[in-house]
């Protein structure tokens, strides 16, 4: 029989003069909380600010001072006041009248503007690789440009746009109770569109299938114009492509992904660079409607759209280049340490290709490619920080980690999330929130009523646990620094005391600051960048110091004064004349390594507070699914059938993860996305080698890791960070 994991949702009953009453539930901090609010104190935290290092002017000028005083608006609520008309008939036709009044920017001569762009002129004149040469007649090229441009986009049809807006408005009102948008975020975007004088480029992280129609509708309804969105031409029929182009969709021409020495590919990429800068809209509407047929039959839900703080792209490109320094591949950074050939961890940036390799990206210079990749990390970091943590993510985390008192722990974890500057997307009475959250997870948990009004929550094994693990991963960005620090402490203690030893025994050991820095750096180099989402302008030393500060602030580590060492609070004896107390946060040079020398003699111990063991275990388990997937991928090396394609080997590993999960009951790492991350990480680490072939890129086992001994070293290296 499958093991069922149980968690009690306990209620305490008390008698009073008026009969039996339900008392308050006690949180993990010993505070009695009955209501959950989405903020601490008076104001809601502001999330998603742009980088102060790379865009200091935007950070200051494009921030709305009274943003915390502003609330939310419902963007799908259209009343008589939203139109120019009044009356009984207007109140019944307000959706249609509002759609007719939407402003659609006038069309411009796209072909003429594209022909006059620098990139297309360079191709015509033969100054670009694959150009036609000085003697080429430009008229055939002009026809080719018009053909490519016709494949990319068509002039938007205002009537179709307004009609489609009315249809989408009716559809969204049937689907959602409300769609919330923060007024302060909207004011910042309006301010950026008015002051910069340049078109807005909006990048989104898609949370659901509805985003393809929801996001363009929200931006159009708030006066930000028609937004053009790129769309894959292979995903819809020619008739649907023609309709979507008239609604503002963009389609990348197939020639853009041809080889760099192809004249057709050069011209297509030049046209794309000249024509995708303006607006776009309504991509994938038909596919979304097909996928949401079952949603309309269910209960209505609420949605929220988050907008991060805008910034100037010109300012970013100017300032970010000053933060660039030396880079090394993951193989250069970690392989000597994994094999025991070196103990020194280079304090430098990891070079990792985690963005899709496409023709337009390869056509850029190497410096510009690096700029695009760093910009994507900045924007994705802001986007994730802007997303509110939902109640299902908090509940899934508590259920996975077998917390016994759901009511109290739910309040505690919500408060800890808010303390770290993240927003939450829920509020209300505690009991109602917990019951509603459990109802949303009813397909993956079982609720059993037992004696005295207690409720037993049982997680369903298999797919249920995998779904809870995906929801729990949404909480990782809020606790990422502490989770990295806890796993680093775990690796450091593993070499000194038995991992299964009591907390008091582990608290005796002194933990050197340099040793902690080293373990954090190893984790930074091991984990993929699309999960860490660290800002590329931040040096490794600064991040290590930030991780250590977080561990001290949350009470897990306490400073230990060793004999003969300077006290931690003594600032008078610092070597002010030798070096400054501060370093530029974007400095990736070796000068940061000098700061590690100042950490000599600084030691810490694990705190002996009663709540620390559970909190330490909670932080370590946040990274357990990914780290266990990596460890099992190392075990699978001698069983895998190589050579194989990338997709084929990922499927092999995923089947192995599923089989292992059936044996040990740990289904959280049996996820196809974790299998993909493991294969890519091992490829970057040099465990797997990739070679081209007619069937696609083929993976081979590296000769270095063909031996069983080196495979065991790799597995042991990963296992040191895993807390059982």
UniProtKB/TrEMBL annotation:
Biased composition (Polar residues): 9-23
Any Gene Ontology CC annotation: mitochondrial membrane
GO biological process: fatty acid metabolic process; glycerol-3-phosphate metabolic process; phospholipid biosynthetic process; piRNA processing; triglyceride biosynthetic process
Organism: Pipistrellus kuhlii (Kuhl's pipistrelle)
Gene Ontology terms, MF aspect: glycerol-3-phosphate O-acyltransferase activity
Key words, A-Z: Acyltransferase, Transferase
Claim: Acyltransferase is one of the keywords in the record: yes
Domain GPAT/DHAPAT C-terminal residues, every copy: 303-688
Coiled-coil region: none
Pfam families attached to this UniProt entry: GPAT_C
Domain of life of the source: Eukaryota
Stretches for region Disordered: 1-23
The name this protein goes by in its record: Glycerol-3-phosphate acyltransferase 2, mitochondrial
Keyword check for Acyltransferase: yes
């Amino acid at each position: 029989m499958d093991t069922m994991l149980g968690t009690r949702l306990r209620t305490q009953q008390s008698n009073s003069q008026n009969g039996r009453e339900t008392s308050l539930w006690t949180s993990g901090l010993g505070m009695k909380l009955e209501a959950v609010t989405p903020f601490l104190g008076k104001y809601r935290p502001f999330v998603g600010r742009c980088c102060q290092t790379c865009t200091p002017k935007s950070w200051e000028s494009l921030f709305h001072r009274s943003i915390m005083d502003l609330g939310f608006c419902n963007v799908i609520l259209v009343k008589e006041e939203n139109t120019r008309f009044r009356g009984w008939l207007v109140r019944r036709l307000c959706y249609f009248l509002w759609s007719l009044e939407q402003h659609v920017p006038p069309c411009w001569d796209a072909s003429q503007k594209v022909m006059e762009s620098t990139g297309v002129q360079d191709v015509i004149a033969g100054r670009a690789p694959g150009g036609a040469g000085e003697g080429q007649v430009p008229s055939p090229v002009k026809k080719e440009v018009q053909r490519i441009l016709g494949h990319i986009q068509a002039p938007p049809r205002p009537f179709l746009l307004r009609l489609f807006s009315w249809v989408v408005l009716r559809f969204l009102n049937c689907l959602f109770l409300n769609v919330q948008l923060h007024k302060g975020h909207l004011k910042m975007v309006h301010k950026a569109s008015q002051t910069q004088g340049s078109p807005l480029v909006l990048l989104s992280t898609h949370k659901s299938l509805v985003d393809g129609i929801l996001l363009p509708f929200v931006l159009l309804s708030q006066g930000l114009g028609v937004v053009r969105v790129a769309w894959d031409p292979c995903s819809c029929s020619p008739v649907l492509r023609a309709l979507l182009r008239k609604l503002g969709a963009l389609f990348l021409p197939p020639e853009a992904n041809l080889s760099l020495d192809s004249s057709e590919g050069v011209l297509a990429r030049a046209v794309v660079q000249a024509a995708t800068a303006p607006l776009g809209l309504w991509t994938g509407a038909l596919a979304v409607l097909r996928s949401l047929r079952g949603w309309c039959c269910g209960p209505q839900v609420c949605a929220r759209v988050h907008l991060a703080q805008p910034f100037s792209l010109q300012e970013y490109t100017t300032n970010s280049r000053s933060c660039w320094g030396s880079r090394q591949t993951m193989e250069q950074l970690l392989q000597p340490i994994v094999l025991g050939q070196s103990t020194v961890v280079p304090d430098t940036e990891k070079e990792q290709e985690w963005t899709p390799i496409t023709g337009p990206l390869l056509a850029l210079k190497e410096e510009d490619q690096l700029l695009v990749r760093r910009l994507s990390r900045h924007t994705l970091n802001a986007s994730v920080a802007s997303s509110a943590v939902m109640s299902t993510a908090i509940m899934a985390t508590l259920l996975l980690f077998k917390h016994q008192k759901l009511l109290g722990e739910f309040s505690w974890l919500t408060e800890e999330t808010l303390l770290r500057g993240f927003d939450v997307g829920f509020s209300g009475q505690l009991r109602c929130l917990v019951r509603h959250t459990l109802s949303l997870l009813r397909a993956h948990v079982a609720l059993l009523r037992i004696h005295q009004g207690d409720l037993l929550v049982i997680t369903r094994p298999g797919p249920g646990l995998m779904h809870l693990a995906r929801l729990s991963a949404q909480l990782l960005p809020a606790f990422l620094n502490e989770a990295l620090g806890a796993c680093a402490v775990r690796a450091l203690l593993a070499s000194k005391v038995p991992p299964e030893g009591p907390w008091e025994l582990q608290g005796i050991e002194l933990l050197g600051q340099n040793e902690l820095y080293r373990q954090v750096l190893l984790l930074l180099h091991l984990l993929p960048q699309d999960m860490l989402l660290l800002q590329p302008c931040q040096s490794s030393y600064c991040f290590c110091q930030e991780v250590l500060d977080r561990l001290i602030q949350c009470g897990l580590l306490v400073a230990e004064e060793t004999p003969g060492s300077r006290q931690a609070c003594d600032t008078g004896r610092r070597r002010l004349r030798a070096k400054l107390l501060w370093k530029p946060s974007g400095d990736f040079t070796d000068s940061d390594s000098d700061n590690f020398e100042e950490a000599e003699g600084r030691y810490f111990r694990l705190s002996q507070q009663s709540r620390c063991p559970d909190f330490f275990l909670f932080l370590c388990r946040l990274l357990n699914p990914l780290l266990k997937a990596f460890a099992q991928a190392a075990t699978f090396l001698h069983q895998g059938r190589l050579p194989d394609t990338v997709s084929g080997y990922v499927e092999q590993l995923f089947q192995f993860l599923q089989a292992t999960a059936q044996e040990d009951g740990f289904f959280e790492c049996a996820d196809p996305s974790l299998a993909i991350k493991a294969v890519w990480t091992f490829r970057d680490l040099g465990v797997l080698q990739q070679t081209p072939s007619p069937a696609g890129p083929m993976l081979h086992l590296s000769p270095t890791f063909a031996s069983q001994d080196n495979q065991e070293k790799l597995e042991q290296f990963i296992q040191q960070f895993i807390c059982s």
